[in-house]
Amino acid sequence: MTLLELKxxxxxxxxxxxxxxxxxxxxxEEGEFVGITGRNGVGKTTLCNIIRRIIPEFIDxxxxxxxxxxxxxxxxxxxxxxxxxxxxxxxxxxVQISGIKKTVYEEIGYSLENLGVxxxxxxxxxxxxxxxxxxxxxxxxxxxxxxxGQSQLxxxxxxxxxxPRLLLVDEPTSQLDPVGTEMVFEALxxxxxxxxxxxxxxxxxxxxxxxxxxxxxxxxxxxxCDGPNNEVFSNLEIENYGVEVPSVTKLAYELKSxxxxxxxxxxxxxDAEIEFRKVLKI
Length: 282
Fold this sequence. Notes:
This protein has about 280 residues and is an alpha/beta fold. The chain has 11 helices and 10 strands.
């Protein structure tokens, strides 16, 4: 089932001479884990804001094209309906923390409190999501006294507890150190095993390649590459669009250029280990 579809979507900010997005055509099927990447300024965050209807409701500009969610125009849904259907995780986890709760446990359940969900159900779902993301040890900590990685996990949990059909994650590790980055991606790996459809915007191709099923590359406001992880990230042409291929892919091409019989260009560590052991006979 097609969950989200964008048809010839374009957007220009007020006073801007050129549109940020020109002609975006994109389909996302239910259950997919899609990575969106591209150089800075190509409109990745703008695209997220269009999908969650921040544009044009809160950010002015000229929006063109058609956006369908579950086959219906996105504009036909109320804000309340979209809040339940589409979750969003910000780049900066600290802006997503409410600041009014004294424990992580209370913070995670805050969104359900606002919806008037029964207390027993709130507690059940908090326990469920903390167990899923393996953050039970943070239960009694103050939300303002967490590391960046821990804060992002709590932000993710506070969105997932709403059980959104579609989760947008906009560069969740841009402000995190390597330890925090690993924590967040391990959590996203867990989310991948659920029914949630995920759109992940991220620059770190070595990490994207380990988790997503499909990659979309944006350039000059358009989709220039869209396909399975191994097809897109093994294509050196994406470097023309400011996107590097993963480190293992670079190594594979280097070995191939030196005469090693690389048959399948790997784009992740698991495939690289198989291919390199075979070729290097180790």
